[in-house]
Amino acid sequence: MVRNLGAGVVKEKDTPAHERWNMANDIESTIARCLKGEQAAFAALYDQFAPGLYRLCYSLLLNREDAEDVAQESFVYAFKNLHRYNAKLSSFKTWLYTIAICRCRNLYRRHKPSLDLSSFLPAPKSETPEAALARQTATEEVERGLLALNPRLREAIVLRYGHDLTYREIAEVMGCPPKTAESRVRLAHEALRGLIGPSGQGLLDELLSFAG
Amino acid sequence: MTMISCHDCRKLIPAYVSRELPTDMRRSVGAHLDGCEACYTIYLRQREITHELVQQVPAIGRTSAPQLGKIWNAVQAEMALPRPSSWSRINRRQSIVTIALVLALLVPSLGYQALKQRSMLALPVPPTPTETVSGTSQAVAMTTAECSCIVVSASATAAPKNTIAAQSNYAPNANGTEIP
User: Fold this and answer.
1) Do B42 and A193 touch (CB under 8 A)?
2) What's the predicted TM-score (pTM) here?
């Protein structure tokens, strides 16, 4: 079966309302097809949500193997329990993210995440060594900052900046009131002020301008 | 426009940077930042961090198609595993229901037995039967009075009735003649 992995990820913020409505309808019809047992529909759902879900798991666990395991478990659980999903209560994305976050919490309750430096993507060939180093430094810096955060604050900041979720959606995924979600994002910002050094994006911009 | 303190301003800076504040609050924070050097420094730092988060967080964990393909294969393999048979599920459910029923029946009856034993122990010694009718009724009255002092339960209050019923053998017969 030829599939187009990762083609369907669309930024919610940039999508007009009518397109979002069409997307939601598409997802609902895909789910209906899944419930009828259509294999291609499962693959379509996976294609649309796997890249985002894996990114979420990785950002929270900061370990490739754990992220793969959680992503896999979450999809298996979601597919087996698809009949329980209620489109009136939440979007499929937040439902899926809720499943994944529960599993991530179980994992980082068992062992504290540590930075997996081997997982950085290789630099594009067009990039100079200085720019590649600066990019890696910037990413590492943010990952270290996230790692030092309390898990709840990390979840809030990842959902906000990594997945463009609204406070209401963050609240839905994290299982808390929207005001709590908002204050968690704020507290994460305050904590990150002391955790992320000025060597990240600032250094990257500086080196990129120098290399250019 | 309301004046805000440094403490309030610093709490609002992340939302100010992300342009999430309502207009009047945004103006208040802006005015405070214009006049407060310390808060302005924090604002600059916050702006830098927000920029960094917007740039970097979506890039964390960005993965490649082969890796997602690997996860998909694992998902498919697990989905293909046979589900526990409906019979075993039904049996499990039935056994849980059976245990619950047995407990529901057993526990109250055991409790009743225990209460009965306690109340039997606590019951007064039956009074010696008297020969006259008035004496008998007095004895019945005494027993009831004594039993009412024992605060046990319904079973305990049922016990005196038994006692009374037992005493009824000594009660006068229908003709009003004395029992020898």
Assistant:
1) yes
2) 0.64
